[in-house]
Amino acid sequence: MAPPPIRVQSAPFDMGAELNAFAETVPGAGAIVSFSGITRDLATGDLQAMEIEHYPGMTETALAAIRAEALDRFQLIDAMILHRYGPLAPSDPIMMVATAARHRADAFAGAAFLMDYLKSRAPFWKKEITTAGAAWVAARAEDEDALASWSIPDHATQS
Amino acid sequence: MTLEIRYFAWLRERVGTNAETVETEAATIADLIAELAARDEGYALAFSDPGAIRAAIDHALVEMDAPLAGAREVAFFPPMTGG
Q: Quick check: A135 contacting B, CB < 8 Å?
């Protein structure tokens, strides 16, 4: 049975296995694109752990709206979003999106759209725990700009 | 009206709780923020930079002038940093 297209979980996941499972559920696809986010080492290299907080209930609603908007805008056969919360170790996979389409342009654009949208509109917050202490990751202006470049309609983010 | 208020990330840490029930006559999100910020130093600090705060009513993102009429749950949090 196909895994649900939206998943929010604390457990680690296997990127390869997830992508293979997704590929099996998209008959007619000629292109599959995936993106995975990984906890990165800081410039100072002393990241000990990352903690991801989220807003249960709103998270699932927001991710479903993001996926629906992507399916609406691009010629996608399907799209999946998986995002973790809770404590993560350095180099752990944080999240992934995958899109399937007949042709690569839609698959690439759909995945980029999912990421730009998710970054600024899905209620997740990252906290980095280093040897110097813990600090919340600040949102980047570039992320808001990336979202604005898609001309997101209000109804998509507010319902 | 009775509202359930949720706080996340550094807003939660500054107000010192993740959720509370409040009785309020505030008409909008901005009015509610002004009311909460007047409570004590922790709340004042949490809400000191309105530009750094996002709000949701019943799981939907809203602007600061959004009316609270009919709202059940309001959430305050910093700009999101998922992905």
A: no
Encode A40-61: b = buried (16+ Cβ within 10 Å), e = exposed.
Answer: eeeeeeebeebebbbbeebbbb
CA A7 to CA A68: how far, in whole Å? 14
Between A and B, how many residue pairs show a Cβ–Cβ distance under 8 A? 75
Chain B contact for A53 (CB, 8 A cutoff): yes
Residues B5-45 pLDDT 10s: 999 999 999 999 999 999 999 999 999 999 999 999 999 99
Instruction: Render pLDDT for A112-135 as a digit per residue (tens, 0 to 9).
Output: 999 999 998 999 999 999 888 899
Query: B65 vs chain A: nearest CA distance in angstroms?
Result: 14
The nearest CA of chain B is from the CA of A46 a distance in Å of: 20
CB-CB under 8 Å, A53 with B81? no
Q: Which domains does chain A have, with CATH numbers?
A: 6-38+56-83+91-124+141-157 (3.90.1170.40)
Which pTM does this prediction carry?
0.92
ipTM value, please give it. 0.95
**B-chain residue closest to A50, CA distance:** B82
Domain annotation for chain B: domains and CATH numbers = 2-77 (3.10.20.30)
Which positions ≥6 away from B49 have C-beta within 8 Å? none
Two structure tokens written together for A85: 């919360």
